[in-house]
Amino acid sequence: MTGAAGRRGAGHAASAPRARRAAADASPAGNAAGVVAVRPARRGDLPQVTAIDATVTGLEKRDYWRSIYRRYGEPDHAGRHFLVADVDGRVVGFVIGEVRDWEFGSPPCGWVFAIDVKPDARQSGIGTRLLEAICAGFRRAGVRKVRTMLGRDNTLILSFFRSQGMMTGPFIPLEMDLGG
Length: 180
Ligand SMILES: CC(C)(COP(=O)(O)OP(=O)(O)OC[C@H]1O[C@@H](n2cnc3c(N)ncnc32)[C@H](O)[C@@H]1OP(=O)(O)O)[C@@H](O)C(=O)NCCC(=O)NCCS
Prior knowledge:
The protein is of the alpha+beta class. It has one domain (4-163): Gcn5-related N-acetyltransferase (GNAT) (Aminopeptidase, 3-Layer(aba) Sandwich). Helices cover 34% and strands 20% of the residues. It contains 6 helices and 5 strands, in the order H-H-E-H-H-E-E-E-H-E-H. Strands 1-2-3-4-5 form a 5-stranded mixed sheet, with helices on both faces. The longest helix is centred in the last third of the chain and has 15 residues, at 126-140. The N and C termini lie far apart (41 Å). Coenzyme A (COA) binds at residues 17, 20, 56, 114-117, 122-128, 154, 156-157, 159-160, 163.
């Protein structure tokens, strides 16, 4: 992987911007006194996760988030990760992903499906911490590459992933209308 796992992961933590990391550790929103902890999601986090997602998508998808928790959040699912950034019990961001084996003809690699940080907690290193944490999980699972997919016009998420070292990959997304 060329991204967080490669440049900023275990053994390379010094390459993460120290000032921003310190800011994330101490003051995630620039106005909170708490420390950011990245940890596995708990069922009780779902209302806050749902609310953060709703700020991005405009939709409050409670059933969807319950099913995501069942699939990614419960501890017996090796290779699946649903992590939150927690500041004094307040969820300020989350990331979801899993290791997929040979899907799309690709050797096993980690896929990041979603990453969101609360608007008032952004640009203080929390997204970086979340990506580092999920990449550490992928590395523990034995994979050495991480992939994601993003909307062509979502320049914010593109800037973020590029800042972590991610580059255009070898796959091409295809689609068609199914009609009827
Ligand atoms: C993308 C996102 C996760 C970044 O979270 P964050 O906590 O603000 O990220 P960080 O503070 O760790 O920023 C890391 C780098 O990302 C880039 N970045 C972050 N916000 C940016 C912005 N508004 N404009 C340009 N680059 C930005 C920068 O390069 C930044 O490094 P720098 O601070 O040294 O300049 C957050 O903005 C977000 O949740 N956006 C909405 C996500 C979304 O659309 N999700 C749906 C698809 S999954």
